[in-house]
Amino acid sequence: MTLKEQVIENHNDFLESLHHRFLDDDRKAALQRFENIGFPTKKDEEYKYTNLKEITEKEYNFFPKESHNITKEQLDELHLGEENFDWITFVNGKLHKELSKVSIENVEFLSFNYALNDEKHKDIFDKYFNTIAADKSAFTNLNQAYCKYGFFLKVPKNVVIEKPIHVFYISQNQEENTFYNTRNLLIVEEGAKVEIIESHHNFDSTYVLTNSVTEIFTYPNAKADWHKLQNDNDTSYLIDNTFAKQEKDSLTTVNTFSFGGKLVRNNLDFIQNGSNINSFMNGITIIGKDQLVDHHTAVHHNQPNCESYQNYKGIFNGKSHGVFNGKVFVDKIAQKTNAYQQNNNVLLSEGATIDTKPQLEIFADDVKCSHGCTVGQLNEDALFYLRARGISKKEAQALLLYAFANDAMQNIDIEPLKEKISKLLAEKLEVDIEF
């Protein structure tokens, strides 16, 4: 049975399993849209270079077992040494307070499932839920039909959350391939500030497919940073859809670090809804074997005097495959827009490939917009310079690659996260780096 057939067959049982029912009509409508659209194939322009057959032809369990035997040692290995952070731990879809540390005050924080069961949040969901997620996407419709796991966080006006919040999504003790539809909703009100780190971890040898949708609303003079640390095992698939809507004078950053997972697709959509907005998107991808990582970004400049910055670096080895498609749309009223987009890639083996396509659609005449991409190998002159100073070829290559990727994480202001990314870079490149 294909995944599409499973989705349709399991939906009534899924609805019956829920304690809340006020979204039933929306869920049924989303399922109908999904059924009409179907999963994208390579005939679809947006998935021209990404074959989903490996995912869509497997069978999955839609109702994961809640039992687990996660140890403290296993959890400690996932942390960044962030003793002063807060963290939220979901295991097999369920929020586990005993495995979490939440000290934040004066905010509304709930698991997504609990928020759906709380009548006082119905107005919030009516106002925000699924208002910026694309309704023409198979995966966002599928998520709306089945979403249950994830979190809801509302940061009130002028509240600054000093501690970063690390959100762990863990799957363990599953005997069958398992399907998760995680849903996150972040509302950062005027003058507020928050930083989120998100990571997914599969502890089983069975396959996990995670279809995640995140909606971020950043109000005037607010700041929201979301860091995605993607370093899962080879039996993990991740389809990530993140939508960010910004109001005037706000700043939103999404950093995506892709090191693990069999197939990862990141869809990132920024909507600028005011003036003097800054949007930042950075990414580092280092993969090998037969891994695939696909980044699709879009920035909608709808108002004047705004900036966006995209910087994605890719290092590909083995028979790995990278994809980058970045779009920038500048509306005719969005004068004084400054949009920068760059994608640089290094291929380390003959079997590795990258398909890259930066795009600009500009309807205003007073703008500064640039885009570019490079695909190549290491600079031979720089390599010779290092080897002439007694550094081995392998170490010289690794040092050059480390420097190549490093500038894509310069805007991370969480030191433990920056150190973790640096260590992962060093491990992937097999080089000793002093921190």
Automatic annotation (TrEMBL):
SUPFAM superfamilies: Stabilizer of iron transporter SufD (SSF101960). InterPro entries: Fe-S_cluster_assembly_SufBD, SUF_FeS_clus_asmbl_SufBD_core, SUF_FeS_clus_asmbl_SufBD_sf, SUF_FeS_clus_asmbl_SufD, SufBD_N. Pfam families: SUFBD_core, SufBD_N. Residues 175-404 form the SUF system FeS cluster assembly SufBD core domain. Residues 9-167 form the SUF system FeS cluster assembly SufBD N-terminal domain. Belongs to the iron-sulfur cluster assembly SufBD family. PANTHER family: PROTEIN ABCI7, CHLOROPLASTIC. This is Fe-S cluster assembly protein SufD. The lineage of its organism: Bacteria, Pseudomonadati, Bacteroidota, Flavobacteriia, Flavobacteriales. The gene is sufD.
